[in-house]
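Treating backbone geometry as a discrete language has practical consequences that deserve illustration. Part of our work consisted of pairing the sequence of a single chain with a tokenised description of its backbone. What the numbers capture is local backbone geometry rather than side-chain detail. For completeness, the protein is quoted in full, as a sequence line and a line of structure tokens:
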Amino acid sequence: MGALRFVQGIGVRLMGHYQTMDHTPLARALAAQLAAPEHIRRLFAQVPRHRFLPDVMWGPGREQYDRTADPEGWLAVAYTDQALTTQRDDGAEGGMGVPSSSSSAPSVMARMLTAARIEPAHRVLEVGTGTGFNAALLCQLLGSGQVVTVEVDEGIAAGARSSLYAHGVHPTVLTGDAETYASGGQASYDRIISTCTVSRLPSVWVRQMRPRGRIVTPWAPAPGAPGGVLAVLDTTDSTAEGRFEGGLSFMWARGQRERGGTPPPHQGVPAERTEQVLADPRGPWLDGDQALLLSLLMPGWSYGMGQEPDATEPYVWLTSTTDTPGWARLHANGRIEQGGTRRLVDDANRAWALWESWDRPEISDFGLTVDLTRGVQTVWVHGPQHTIWSTRR
């Protein structure tokens, strides 16, 4: 176990039960490394993360951690700053192991709690209960009576409720779809923190906000878009508006996670236009930061990778997710194939030219406005007055 052996005796199995050593040094060490205000870091030292984790979980590289087989390693991993998958394939047996629920990396949780600017009297709705750890942090900060958390998966909600109650906190834990969930009355919350990605901000979230409310959520232009951003949106009665605070990837809200678009025709189908360029055209689409920028600069596309039988490297395919059809294949040898009415590579080149003319704005220079009265959602740069594109809600 190497470095993990310093936690000697943790999780030793005794007569069918676990005798757990004091986890406090591990929790304090994790809290100390978080880039957050002191009162936020303190939460992670006070609330034991391991008590909200299942006996079997998976790391970012799909490595498995089993509490029964390796209690020391399991506990040590619980207090590292990484996301841990706690459910795969929506809980179904025999699936492909696709993550469907997780305990987020503590640094990301701290980042979102900081962005929310929660004050003592606030009432908070959490979307996506997951393990219940984030709800426990909120209860530690505000008290159980100020926290409501909603989880779409009945089994996950039940597990979180049990862990929260065992920890001695009692927030309201609801099972249901938070995209349609409505509280007993309007204007019930000061803050909403979502732990799942959305592309369409649910109208009910805005309508449930009290004056001067704030919604903190992962957001992406569309399912299938590369990565996502952290949207920090201040609300009025009918709008939510704010900047993106850097890139952030979360699992999709289950009602929005369908992948947009389909791959282009089989490679044997001739393209309507083929050109040869000197540089590898796949570059921007394989670079996470550049691809994320492209998703903000030009809406309505999805992408993936394919392989020709005689090629040593995969190609990148693009497809339009708008009403205007279009597709492209970009090959490592510089060959670009396009088809359909919408020429996606040409769109991308125009987008990059605009980005250059705007003095290369960062992700944090972009933002989102959701206007329920007009029924539109708008992405902008350098302020709401500079619209890049809008979509109907």
